[in-house]
Amino acid sequence: MSSSTASPLVDLRQLRLDDARALLEHSGQRLPDRHSDSTEFLQAVIDKLSELSLKDPLTGLSNRRYFQSILMREIEMVARSGESALLLMLDIDHFKSVNDQFGHPAGDAVLQAVAKTLAGCVRPMDTVARFGGEEFAIILPSCQGQYGLQVAERIRDSVSALKVELPSGVALRVTISIGGAFAPRWVRSTSELWVDRADIELYRAKSEGRDRVCIEAQPMLAVSAEEKNLLFGPLSLGDPAWIESIANDGSTGSSGSVMNRVN
Questions:
Q1: Model's pTM, two decimal places?
Q2: Strand ranges for the chain from DSSP E
Q3: Angle of CA points 84, 87, 93, to nearest 5°
């Protein structure tokens, strides 16, 4: 083997990594010593930067970019498996008054406390994200109606029990409003429509007095064994347009009744 083949592909001395190191160290990330194996060090920098790019810097939760990717993946899963999934949109009540009265550092402290509470109320398989400002989002895969309501109420109770201590000695209490919508099963929807439906329920929770949970009723499916076979069969073939093909196939006598029940 030639010496050129055995030599490292990357010479760290030729890379300007100071800014990357400073960014990672500021965020509390630990890196291998720069004098260690160059491939190991560079891979660690890449992995940590990738992780950092998917997190909200203030709360440590998933950021909106990562949330959108998970939401799209969950829509695909629900369309293919028929499993139930719930999207919760959450908004801190009267958050503007916290910033106005106590300043933005107090608002940041509230956001961090609420984020930690949300993360502690869900399963490892769930995704909690900061959607923007004082709004959060939670994706609950494999979630039936009653469980989703219990989780949402647990979150609401846990947030209302918070006491956020400020350096001035003031203890702030906040509440949160929650809206939720289930992904339509057997239908490939869009992330925008799913978020809009959950937002409608969040608006309803706000308009009905805040500090409450409003979740769209979960559609009930009544499907016979024969119809289940018709529903699952095309999925095993990986046909992304199976719904449209069933609906448009005039030779399939039972397709109309199946689609009526699914819709």
A1: 0.71
A2: 86-92, 127-132, 135-140, 164-165, 171-172, 176-182, 213-215
A3: 150
CA distances from 157 to 79, 129, 177, 228 (A): 32, 19, 11, 39
Burial 219-231, CB ≥16 within 10 A → b, else e: eeeebeeebeebb
| Catalytic residue chosen out of the listed positions 40, 51, 134, 153 | 134
Model confidence over 158-183: pLDDT tens digits?
A: 999 999 999 989 999 999 999 999 99
Please say if the pLDDT value at position 248 is more than 50.
Answer: no
- Residues forming beta bridges with residue 215, ordered by sequence position: 180
The total number of residues written for the chain in this structure: 263
What integer best gives the mean pLDDT of the chain? 80
- Please indicate whether residue 135 is annotated as part of the active site: no
Hey, what amino acid is at 113?
A: A
What does the pLDDT average to over 14-38?
Answer: 66
Distance CA 182, CA 160 (A): 25
**CA–CA distance from 95 to each of 91, 98, 100, 131, 200 (Å)?**
9, 5, 9, 15, 19
Q: What is the spatial distance between Cα 107 and Cα 230, in angstroms, rounded to a whole number?
A: 53
DSSP string, 207-253: HTTSS-EEEPPPPP----HHHHHHHHHHHHTT-TTHHHHHHH-TT-T
Distance of CA 169 to the CA centre of its chain: 34
